[in-house]
Amino acid sequence: MAERLIVIGADAAGMSAASQARRRRPDLDIVAFEKGNWTSYSACGIPYVVGGEVDSLEDLVARTPQELRNKQRIDVRLRHEVVSIDPVAARVTVRDHVHHRELQLGYDQLLIASGARPTRPDLPGIDGESVHGVQTLDDAANLLGQARQSRSSRVVVVGGGYIGLEMAEAFLRWGADVHLVEGSDQLMSTFDPDMAAPIRAAVERHGVVVRTGVQVQAFEPGRVLTSDGPLEADLVVLGIGVTPNTEMASAAGIELGHRGAIKVDRRQRTSRQGVWAAGDCALSFHRVSERWQHIALGTVANRQGRVAGINLASGYATFPGVVGTAVSKICATEVGRTGLNETEATTAGFEHVSTVVESTTRAGYFPGSRPITVKLVAERGSGRVLGGQIVGEEGAANRVDVLAAVITAGMDLEALVDLDLGYAPPFSPLWDPVVVAARVLLKQV
Amino acid sequence: MAERLIVIGADAAGMSAASQARRRRPDLDIVAFEKGNWTSYSACGIPYVVGGEVDSLEDLVARTPQELRNKQRIDVRLRHEVVSIDPVAARVTVRDHVHHRELQLGYDQLLIASGARPTRPDLPGIDGESVHGVQTLDDAANLLGQARQSRSSRVVVVGGGYIGLEMAEAFLRWGADVHLVEGSDQLMSTFDPDMAAPIRAAVERHGVVVRTGVQVQAFEPGRVLTSDGPLEADLVVLGIGVTPNTEMASAAGIELGHRGAIKVDRRQRTSRQGVWAAGDCALSFHRVSERWQHIALGTVANRQGRVAGINLASGYATFPGVVGTAVSKICATEVGRTGLNETEATTAGFEHVSTVVESTTRAGYFPGSRPITVKLVAERGSGRVLGGQIVGEEGAANRVDVLAAVITAGMDLEALVDLDLGYAPPFSPLWDPVVVAARVLLKQV
């Protein structure tokens, strides 16, 4: 009998792994159980469907179940929820929501790619039908269905991270009044306060009413109760982070780590022989802090899935980790970050210096030149570049990729200043803003 | 008596050096002789003034003679042409075109920042008044004056490099019929033929009539004679490269190298004690080929000038060299390159592999997603990234900066694939095009 790979979850990590495994092991029996209705999609695109820039959720699907089945012989079973893993018997128990029955299936290799779900705080009314998380296409379909049906015109977004801000923009485009409530004192907790401030200013300029330091207390039909009084709301979007779907793994005796995500090694092996994990349910190694962290991003999921797929098909690959790069666009405002911010640098044990500079995205005299603010964090003494944060307009955010390469290479500020970056008036000032920042910061090292 | 620095040429290299020197040595007597009428300007911006995107040549000036004089106490003398250097007596002879006289002045330190001039082939009619090079603001003022006076509607550009293509675009915007004549078989000689082809296609799509493999034979009033027949022309723009202004340095016994540019060491010292050189008249060290080359770019001029200024004011700085990065925009088409192309890799002694991939600048489903073509060159065996070339539309060219960092760090293709680059649908596909290229090329190493 053919060796069998069971994959739990048929999105980014799971299907990247299955594709790699199929390529290397034509003989393998690959079964993927997906509790939802969609496979292999770009969850990052959801805000743009809600905002109307992308036509439909179907546009976000990279590979349909039919394509996976026909082209790659991956036996994808939608609305099949794995409810338990028996690692001793090497078997999973699956609830089939199509036929309303339960089944068991044995595996030789198991990949857990069960993803994460929007964190739902334990508050009165949290299960109300107008309160939506946005993590899967099923979530998005529910949200869109209700928004269209109720013609939502008053939206409250809870949480001021990437998803919260992107959804706030989406509902601005939709034409709604958007209020954003954030419990801490700043938006975008992965940015330092001095960079979160211009992000907030930009978001407010675009028309979102932002309230920081405000706690949500309860959800009622038509309104959200907060520490700052009630807010009217036809629709509530939760953007307060995600929780890895790892209860089942934990019950099977698989070790968890930071924020309850699954501990893996560099080849995506879990603590149980023959069981692998990848994507939003697993930990990632941070190459600068040198700690294992829970980072739920599509790029990471795809890359980890790929590594898992190669390894479980008897190949060899390692996931070298992340440096914490992320970019986002909220209306005309672009934000990007990579490496460690000041708080993270301190936590990781680095003494550091930092600077913030203002510049422009193109030569000052060139049409379309827009403001850009760059913050750099470097190690005291060595000058090693530890992190960068960027807020600006068109052409700003992509510059974090250069910093990501610089940080990965372990370059110091001198090396950054000495980089031979491209210059022409439509692309940057003579001195690129990241180089200007490095030059200023060099004086403090 | 105060120590005196004489600077020959008051543009990018010269004024960067003078500023650094002033900062470190308040006591220094700094005299700058500039044979033209302008100081410290962005020559790279000239095509955009001609094309009307930037209002006037004055917009390109970073610091006027008055500012240099008043704020930095740099004694700038316009229309003063240094005609000879006596390194034994440590003295220069200067022709003062304002007062029509000659003067001599002694120096303690001398910086040669005499720049380069557009190469003028020795052809009949080359000195005709409608034949223009474009290197200085004076050149640009002449060109604009004639173009406006004659309402030029038929323009022939000779040479298909960066300046040629940018000037071709400028005259398209101007509303002229633009013909571009290139003697070799391809445009953009710093790109490999397979990447020059899409550049040519784009330029032709924008409306330029391109003729490659065609030799110019003579310039006559109203037309250009070529090996492919005559072309009507109210105005001719030369874009066939530049020649360093080093005759005077050579006459003073200062050693020249590649293409007649001045030999310098990493601190910008020439072969004569107390004489420094920087900018378009000097050589640059190429960090990948490890050869000294003549590269006339504003960024290099500024950086070399800065290094020279620090050193001649008793500081310490070195210019680490370039990796050959350049970007340009021709209408909607963006081009960028860094490192070595295939020909350069071969010349430098590298055995190499290469690949070309097609992708998009944003997620395929995202509005405004445009085509991008990426070519990567890597060393056979080691997989070390040697060079990259990019042709695409909005958002394409800046990606060479990541490759410039990768090449500078000596990373291989695996390291490039493993970079944690930012992803969001408005910025790139899930796999950045440069990563896709690296992954494809890995199979060939």
Structural class computed from helices and strand pairing of chain A: alpha/beta
Biggest interface, chains and residue tallies: A-B, 57 and 57 residues
CATH fold node name of the largest domain in chain A = FAD/NAD(P)-binding domain
Regions with little confidence, pLDDT below 50 for 5+ residues of chain A: none
Question: Can you tell me about this structure?
Answer:
The structure is a homodimer of 445-residue chains. Chain A is α/β, with parallel strands linked by helices. The first copy, chain A, has 3 domains: 4-115 and 242-312, 3-Layer(bba) Sandwich (FAD/NAD(P)-binding domain); 120-238, FAD/NAD(P)-binding domain; 326-442, FAD/NAD(P)-binding domain (3-Layer(bba) Sandwich), CATH 3.50.50. Helix content of chain A is 26%, strand content 28%. Chain A is built from 12 helices and 25 strands. Chain A has a 5-stranded parallel sheet. Chain A has a 5-stranded parallel sheet with strand order 9-16-10-11-12, with helices on one face. In chain A, helix 1 runs parallel beside helix 8 (298-312).
List the topology elements.
Two copies of one chain form a homodimer.
Chain A: E1 4-8, H1 12-24, E2 29-34, H2 46-50, H3 65-72, E3 74-78, E4 80-86, E5 91-96, E6 101-106, E7 109-112, E8 116-118, E9 131-133, H4 137-150, E10 154-158, H5 162-174, E11 177-182, H6 193-206, E12 209-212, E13 216-220, E14 223-226, E15 229-232, E16 235-238, E17 242-244, H7 247-251, E18 275-277, E19 284-285, E20 292-293, H8 298-312, E21 326-330, E22 333-339, H9 342-347, E23 352-360, E24 371-379, E25 385-392, H10 400-408, H11 413-417, H12 433-442
Parallel strand pairs in A: 1-2, 1-7, 2-3, 7-18, 9-16, 10-11, 10-16, 11-12
Antiparallel strand pairs in A: 4-5, 5-6, 8-17, 13-14, 14-15, 19-20, 21-22, 22-25, 23-24, 24-25
Helix pairs in contact in A: 1-8
